[in-house]
TrEMBL record:
This is Uncharacterized protein.
């Protein structure tokens, strides 16, 4: 089966089937591991939604792509630059001290609906507490810059999306 971003997003948004990347918590792989994982997933998916479900979804995704209504990734449209500028003006003397990844959930109407801050970047296991001064500071920073992002699109319509920004201070 040929996978596409549109197919993955259809499965994720409409059926809550996510493939966050095969990972057995090691960097070691044995020949056949990934095939076994995906075969197990296919069997379980077919048990729940029926035989041929994935092929039908792939045809739908291919058709949406052909019509220009497939999945289009969200865009931050300069928000990173605005955040960097805000930090340079409001966190002087601290720039570059610590790195954070800011995961911003935006609505189809381009509003921020949730925010998580990860210390150390994208690979941090848990977001920092929402009552911490870092979270409060970054939330305030985002409240003070224009939100110019574009949400992702699927089926030709905007959908709830995640935008990742980075902060060093």
């Amino acid at each position: 089966m040929k996978s596409s971003l549109t197919l993955r997003k259809l499965l994720e948004t409409e059926y809550e089937i996510t493939d966050k990347g095969y990972n057995d918590d090691t960097c070691l792989r044995y020949v056949g591991d990934e095939e076994c994982f995906y075969e197990t997933m296919r069997i379980e998916i077919e048990k729940k939604w029926g035989r041929g479900f994935l092929a039908t979804q792939q045809r739908l995704a291919d058709q949406l792509d052909k019509e220009g209504k497939g999945y289009y990734e969200p865009r931050e449209n300069g928000m990173q630059e605005l955040l960097d500028r805000y930090l340079a003006e409001n966190a002087p003397g601290r720039l570059g001290e610590n790195g954070y990844s800011v995961r911003v959930k935006i609505s189809p109407e381009k509003r921020i609906i949730d925010l998580e801050v990860l210390s150390g970047g994208l690979f941090a296991e848990e977001p920092i507490p929402r009552n911490s001064w870092v979270y409060t500071f970054l939330k305030g920073a985002l409240d003070n810059i224009p939100i110019s992002c574009e949400p992702a699109r699927l089926r030709g319509k905007p959908i709830e999306s995640l935008i990742y920004l980075h902060a060093w201070f």
